[in-house]
Design goal:
Blueprint lengths: L7 H19 L5 H15 L5 E8 L2 E9 L5 E3 L3 H9 L3 E3 L17 E9 L2 E10 L7 H15 L3
Antiparallel strand pairs: 1-2, 1-6, 2-3, 4-5, 5-6
Helix pairs in contact: 1-2, 1-4
Length: 159
């Protein structure tokens, strides 16, 4: 497992490796659900101090739970609701140091303290979001955001 929380230099070195692993892992697989499943498993293995890693897929005007690693989760989220719905409505990454300070946060897992949500945009349309929760406040920073956005860009080629 990569050590991503020790210092910024480790993240700068390790994230590109996991993105290359994602690209190699998905390269010959056309099935979207299989690719999202492997992507969530890869991130769950790679990241320290997380308690939920997964995807919500945009269907019929709401986010619907997709492949994930973690405890059972909320199944449907409307645009603009919670961190995931806000990422969709604003079409930009939401980096939340303390979920209890986020207006309208949806508490699917009471242990979650911080969260990062990256929207997935395919051909100019919202496909869904990558959602990662941590039991620690301030778990995610701008380096995580930069590389998780690159992770999603790589994933978009395979969905």
């Amino acid at each position: 497992m990569f050590e991503t929380t020790d210092y910024k230099g480790a993240k700068e070195k390790d994230y590109p490796i996991v993105i290359k692993q994602l690209d190699a892992l998905l390269q010959d697989e056309p099935d979207t659900i299989a690719n999202l499943s492997n992507a969530s498993a890869l991130l769950n293995q790679f990241l320290n101090d997380v308690n939920w890693v997964g995807f919500y897929i945009w269907k019929e005007d709401e986010l619907v739970l997709g492949p994930f690693q973690g405890l059972p989760a909320c199944v449907r989220i409307k645009s603009g609701k919670g961190v995931c719905g806000t990422a969709v409505s604003e079409q930009k990454t939401q980096l939340v140091a303390d979920v209890h300070q986020f207006p309208g946060h949806i508490a699917c897992d009471a242990a979650s303290q911080s969260e990062i949500v990256v929207p997935i945009i395919k051909n100019g349309e919202v496909f869904g979001v990558l959602d990662i929760d941590s039991p620690n406040k301030n778990r995610f920073d701008e380096i995580d955001q930069k590389y998780l956005e690159q992770f999603v860009e790589t994933l978009e080629k395979y969905i």
